[in-house]
Specification:
Histidine-containing Protein, Chain: A, alpha/beta, 4-stranded mixed sheet
Length: 98
């Protein structure tokens, strides 16, 4: 997973910069602790509390889980997902349900 705070300083105060950096750390921690999302192909940017997700995920389930994880973090204003799905026809099936 790639993380970066946006370096374009469009009138971003030091408080906003620190806030975005804290959000980035929370997102990184959340992705690393979750076994359901493979975050190796996800690039994350944070600007004024808006989280931008770019890159590739394996399937629709991964796409949804990545968005839901980020939305669950306090301080996230909005999530803009530009994630591409490698296998769009693949869906998550619980093997315990038959």
């Amino acid at each position: 997973m790639y993380y970066q705070s946006d370096t374009k300083q469009r009138a971003r105060s030091p408080i906003a910069f620190v806030s975005d950096t804290v959000l980035m750390a929370r997102i990184k921690s959340k992705f690393m602790s979750d076994d359901m999302v493979n975050d190796t192909g996800i690039h994350v940017k944070v600007l004024h509390g808006v989280v931008y997700l770019d890159g590739w995920v394996a399937d629709t389930y991964q796409h949804r889980m990545a968005q839901d994880l980020v939305k669950s973090i306090d301080g996230v204003v909005r999530v803009v997902s530009r994630l591409q799905i490698e296998n769009p026809g693949t869906v998550f099936v619980n093997p315990d349900i038959r």
